[in-house]
Amino acid sequence: MFSKKKKNVTTNEFNQIVEGTSLTKEAWKRLKKNKMAILGLIVVIIYALIAICADMFPLYPYDEVVTEHQHLKPSFSKTSGELMLEKKMQDLYYNAWKQGRLVVGEENDAMIKNWIANDKTNKVWSYLLEAGEAQRAAGAFEWSKSDLSAIEKVEDKIQNDVMVTINGLYKNVNGKNTNLKKLNYNEIADIYASMLGLDRAVLDTSVEKELKMALVNEIKSKDSEISTEDATAQAEIDFANFSEKDFETKAKANVYGKIETQVKRDALKTVKANLKENPSQTFPYEEHQELSYGISADILATKTHDRRYYLGTDYLGRDMLSRIVYGSRVSIGIGLVGTITSILIGILVGSLAGYIGGRVDYYLMRFVDVMYGLPYMLLVIIMMAIFDRSIINLFIALALISWLTIARMVRGQIMSLKNQEYVEAARSMGASTARIITRHMIPNSLSIIIVYSTIRIPNFIMQESFLSFLGLGVQAPYASWGSLIGDAVSSMTLYPWKLIYPSLTMVIFLFAMNFLGDGLRDAFDPQSKNQL
Amino acid sequence: MSKYIIKRLIGMIPTLLVIVTLSFFIVRIAPGGPFDGERALPEVIKRNIEAKYHMDEPLIQQYGRYLFDVLRGDLGPSYKYKDHDVNSLIFNSLPNSIILGCMAMAVALVFGISLGITAALKQNTVLDYVPMALAALGLSIPLFVVGPLLQYIFAMQLKILPTSGWFMDGETTFATAVLPVVSLSFAYYADVARLTRSSMLETLRSDYIRTAKAKGMKQSTIIFKHAMKGAMLPIVSYLGPAFAGIITGSIVVEQVFRVPGLGKFFVQSSFNRDYTLIVGVVIVYSTILVIMNFLVDIVYSLLDPRITYK
Amino acid sequence: MKEFKNEDIILDVKELQTYFKTDAGILKAVDGVSFQVHRGETIGLVGESGCGKSVTNLSIMRLVPSPPGKIVGGEVLYEGEDILKLSEKELRNIRGNKISMIFQDPMSSLNPFLKISTQMIETITLHQKVSKQEAREKAIKMLGEVGIPSPEKRIDQYPHQFSGGMRQRVMIAMALSCNAEVLIADEPTTALDVTIQAQILELIGKMNEKFNTAVILITHDLGVVAGMCDNVCVMYAGKIVEKAPTDKLFKEPLHPYTEGLIASVPKLEDKGKKEKLFSIEGQPPNVIDLPPCCPFHPRCHKDIDVCHKCYPPTKQIDPDHSVSCWLYASEEEIAEALKEIK
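ok -> structure tokens follow
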């Protein structure tokens, strides 16, 4: 009936093009029409790329504490030094106003007092800064002596504080640089011993001691009830059981860290001396420094207060941008891996119940029913509160409870597929069980599973964030969206950026994810728009 | 029907038993005890305290003793709040939590259902887009963001609502309830509104609605008499999970808005390892949840004549 | 054989056009359908699935789901008044009262959440000034009329407690409870068992005689038509291709499609013959973006050149027999049509 008229294009008798489409092709076509879903997809991809490539961006380390930079507000134009100075000046103007040296008129006094009474400290500061600067420019206000010295102190700090980052350590052997990381423990230890002028044997014993101490601490953190003596004894045993390789890596890391600290200290001295000699030195700069004891280093020298915090800093002076990016990585990672884990468990249980049926099915499903009745989030909270709050535990706790729905779904799907005509047809034609499962059951359940998992991911992320918000999830120095928001809530009037940016990041992602999930569901299953 | 109800009531027992057992053992197998915290107590005193709370007995004996007490309705003494027993702690805070949860549920249902129906009837108009955009927002903003955000905007910046407190607690006004209830209900409003809209649309496309139209029924009669029941079924089955969510959610809301409810105790007691209080709170929550699930099933069967229970 | 006079016309469908907007383009589900229904007449609307039979009748009641569907042209005159131009309120007064409808699937056409009594009483009180009690009595009487045993008990049951055939009986009782003048039966027997089918058809026939209700019977089953209808319209791809009294149509079908339809019904006297049962090859066309041609030509064994290029005009062969096929057009007409294309 159908005749092929052109190449690859099938047309019917009315020259209407006839196209064969698969389910996925159709679904993709429908998805492409859903603009919000596509937008969601794009956003999700961007987030994923940022989370994956976080290490490649020029971000400050997310756990690097710069005490002087605590609670700096977000700014694109000002460096942290300028913000510090501004903060200092706000402080000084406030004091001046309180002491009556800065006069702003009665009306404004009342306004400021009203702000203070209403906890609007930020407004007071910015107003006084503006008023003070204006008066100072007009010559109506002058800094006191102590003010001036305070400002000078800050300015001096901004000018002179430098930081050094070590990008690589090398040993010079006959004019050839070898990276220290490539050397073995023995060689590194030799270098370190010669650096300090120590005897090798002394160094070895001290390294050994430190490794044992680390072991003791590790044991104690796992089991808080163990006494120090027991832990030490246990550590001795563990240490004795170390393999050659274990010892090598641990000891090497230990000594390498020590060398790095030492080199950093020396390099910092050199950089500071350089700066004193040559104040117009531009920062940052990279340098290959030759140090004594036959070691050289690639260093990066930066001025501490030249940093810019586009999204501000937190209470330890950590860069919020970096924390949000790495927090996204943790949140999305937990969401993704958690969903996959729970789905794998769900598929296993569900297909077992569905395919075997009978008594297995009955008991598995009763178990699922009972689990459904549990206020499982409460159990997770208890678990996280009393057990070790590691990311792995968090993950297990969440994954353990979230496979229920998927198990039910997969079971239902398998049961209905088992009785489907085409499966019966395949079986009647002699297809093996394996073939039926791989060619019919899995492909036909896959779309529903994919759709469900997209809907699950935001849920998972929300649960993780919920726990982190309560302080039961991801622990410092790691961050996740929930813990960032949790940290910010108590001080949100003073430092609103700490709340706003992580919230925004999280909400945009969840938004995108939800639209994508909805879109996928509608695309794969246009009939049933009724499921949640 | 009554047979079914009895059967269901009996069916609750294993679920509750599992909950009691699970929470009892989870808290006890974990390292650390309730009296480790503060200063290190002299060994003798610690022994004495443990003996007082029967913690020197084998675990299984403690479990049996506890189970027996629970059956008598006694949840035991609190380990941390020395002068209170768990019963009185829960009794004082539970009403606040229940009122908060019920108000949130009611708000979510009233707004969700009414706006969901409007959206379905006025498909692709402003009346559809606005509630649905709001619902999409509610779905994507976690509770612990909504709460602080509303607090920041309405209590701290605009100063039109109180920051925290609870109206049943002393002489504070009812206005204290607004922010906690709104925050807690937002996510559930979102789900209810979306569900209502989609199930209403689906019902309106069904054959029996076409029949009703062909009979010459008025649009309003068709919606409220013919479509409503069918459209409400998914909402009713959603109520079970929603109650569970509201219970967990109230923990955050009570913390953010300092509502003197059960949720605050729960997190605190978990950190404190106040064994009896943790397990007590979990038992209370679970009982509420199990009863709610049961009620939901009954309502469902009343709505849908096709379901017969034996 | 009943005779119908022109003044007895109760429903006059003129050039009805109903289009659906789909992703692939405009779907012309009904494209210029005209027919008349007289008082007491049973008219059959026959065609393969997807030819627009159901949409035609939904359009008469203005029940086409919109969007995506839209009635874009034509008139539906009920006692001289155009239903398509009525206000919502006037329309409601006709629906269920003057024109009633029963649907293909009795399982889903009754509201599963409401008792039969509720559903029937509301229909009666809606259109007639009677008390609830009277309406209930009338409902029970109607249920008895359509052959439901112990109707006074069963009226308080829910639809799921009835079997498929019983539900269709309830539908018929409900449709006729307001003494409707036109009953549109949209494949009323397709979803039922064969034995039940006959009962339901018989019931419809009985009701037609008893209440002098005109019936529009939509079906794809020619056997049903032969037994029940006075006149038949054969539809293909959204258009009526042949219209004739039932006897005439079966005796001398003019359109090749009608011929094919009749030939493909198995006949008892053919039993034992070696010949294969006739079947029309191919499928009905996709009516989206159909080129101007006779849509049947690819399946037609008598097709001529012009069939591929132009839709045929409707020819009145007898006063009561019309057909749309080039085979019955004159040479001049064909030549003219071909000329116009060029």
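Chain A touches chain B at residues 118-119, 223-225, 370, 373-375, 377-379, 381-383, 385-387, 458, 462, 465-466, 469-470, 472, 482, 485-486, 488-489, 492-493, 496, 499, 503, 506-507, 510-511, 513-515, 529-530, 532 (CB under 8 Å).
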